[in-house]
Design a protein that fits this description.
Number of strands: 10
Distance between the termini: 58 Å
Radius of gyration: 22 Å
Largest sheet: 5 strands, antiparallel
Strand order of the largest sheet: 1-2-3-5-4
CATH class of the largest domain: Alpha Beta
CATH topology of the largest domain: Aminoglycoside 3'-phosphotransferase, Chain: A, domain 2
Number of domains: 2
Helix content: 40-55%
Order of helices and strands: HEEEHEEHEHHEEEEHHHH
Structural class: alpha+beta
Oligomer: single chain
């Protein structure tokens, strides 16, 4: 606590109570409550947000190379469904206010393409080796049987994703400018606070990039908690994705998880079911859009 106290004293604050919450510490002081973190938002990102009048983050009162102190913000107790819609509206506003275009370095797209192509090849090889081992057994465990019965679906998803990746690659070959935004880069419900205003917290991973990657992070954290079709629709009311951005988003969210048999039988059945649920929920997001085309 010595490091925290020294940082607080620079701002004439005296701590009287501490509460650890994840990587942050909530501190009660003589002047109210504050959040202390050993990481901070990048100065360039913060200055850019200020220049674009995006002030939906708690007030920062102190920032050094290795820490940040912000005012603590209390949130209202609202249903998670409403909270998620409020969150995605704010993300759309963030992307809208920070949109800028840069000349494309074709190597950027090629790097994304090669990474995803290698990922898909790895997934195909991984599941081929895994199912070969499982099917060689005289008796399968319940979790192995569950995977064996559904392996064709995983292969189908991998093959379909290869087609989407090639389609995206063709779309970006002729592009000359790329749309970039400030990415919060760590989106989940716990990082959104709603009271009279809306706030995003935990900006230490923020960077500049394709808006799709914020949506992908949000999807990964909450795909089984909400109807993501509604979330995506709400986002696109204010910030429609470009054709190639949406194709890349579909590629990313379709990537199946890697299933490793390193847990109890009960937990393995849950993990495999979780993976399959994600596959089918993702299909329900993508299929109506692809059928329109």
């Amino acid at each position: 606590m010595r490091k925290i106290n020294e940082a607080l004293r620079k701002h004439s604050l005296v701590a009287n109570r501490y509460e650890k919450r994840g990587k942050a510490t909530i501190v009660n002081t003589n002047e109210g409550r504050y959040i202390y973190k050993d990481s901070k938002i990048d100065d360039n990102i913060l200055n850019y947000l200020k220049s674009r009048n995006f002030d939906y983050l708690p007030e920062i009162i102190g920032k050094e190379e290795d820490y940040q102190i912000s005012k603590y913000v209390d949130g209202f107790d609202i249903p998670n469904e409403q909270k998620m819609l409020d969150l995605v509206k704010l993300v759309a506003l963030l992307h809208s206010k920070t949109t800028h275009y840069k000349e494309i370095d074709i190597n950027d797209y090629e790097e994304i393409y090669e990474d995803l192509d290698n990922n898909l090849k790895f997934l195909y090889g991984y599941y081929t080796d895994l199912i070969t081992t499982i099917e060689s057994k005289v008796y399968m465990s319940p979790s192995e049987l569950l995977l064996a019965r559904n392996i064709s679906k995983i292969y189908q998803v991998i093959e379909k994703d290869k087609e989407r990746l090639e389609k995206w690659h063709e779309q970006v070959k002729e592009k000359r400018k790329q749309r970039n935004v400030v990415l919060h880069n760590n989106l989940k419900l716990d990082h959104f606070i709603r009271n009279n205003n809306s706030y995003l917290i935990s900006w230490d991973k923020a960077k500049i990039g394709n808006p799709v990657f914020d949506l992908y992070k949000l999807y990964n954290n909450h795909i089984l908690d909400f109807d993501f079709s509604d979330i995506l629709r709400e986002y696109e009311k204010s910030y429609p994705l470009l054709k190639d951005e949406k194709e890349l988003f579909y590629v990313l969210i379709s990537l199946p998880d890697i299933i490793k048999f390193q847990d109890t039988e009960y937990n393995m059945c849950k993990k495999i079911s979780h993976t399959l649920d994600k596959i089918y929920k993702t299909e329900r997001i993508i299929s109506p859009e692809e059928s329109k085309k």
